[in-house]
Amino acid sequence: MEIVLDTCAIIAVIADEPEGNEVVEYTKDCIIISPNVLPFEIANSISRMIRKGIVDNIEMIELIRSFQQIPIKLVENNLENVLKIAFEYKIYAYDAFFLETARKLNLPLLTFDVGMKNIAKEIGISLIGEDKNVGI
Fold it and tell me: Any residues with CB less than 8 A from the CB of 47 and at least 6 apart, and which?
């Protein structure tokens, strides 16, 4: 089975957050798909952690190495389709990349972002772990 993972789901795993165990369980024996902007999003999230003093340089390197060990198939998206979603739902383009990936490939999405979950439902994307009320 293939599933689309967004940045917050991957960060939950590499940063050893409580939801990370759920992500690991949901993705066992799955092929993980994400848009090709994922590495930029991960870098942005890690840089935010550095600025906030959540991680230091050594922990940053560990996070990067953990991310690089996850087998993820990165896919390209049509920028116009991504921006249509971003414009229509008034969200960041980065979030729209994940929604468009799931929509165009007809794959379920795993996210803990409540706003993305709501939009996914509205545009017909199935969600992994929807029975859980976890949100950021």
Answer: none
Asked if the structure places residue 131 within a domain, the reply is no
Mean pLDDT per 10-residue segment, the chain (136 residues): 95 92 92 97 94 93 93 97 98 97 97 95 92 44
Residues in the chain: 136
Other C-beta atoms closer than 10 Å to the C-beta of 49 total 17
For the chain, the domain total comes to 1
Task: Name the one residue in this structure whose structure tokens are 């930029």.
Answer: 40
Q: For position 48, which CATH number holds?
A: 3.40.50.1010
Q: Sign of dihedral through CA atoms 125, 76, 50, 25? A: positive
Name the residue among 81, 90, 72 with its Cα closest to residue 7.
72
* Residue 54 neighbours by CB under 8 Å, 6+ apart: none
Burial (CB count within 10 angstroms: exposed 0-12, middle 13-18, buried 19+), residue 73:
exposed
Return all residues near 24 (Cβ < 8 A) that are at least 6 apart.
13
Give the domain extent around 84: 2-122
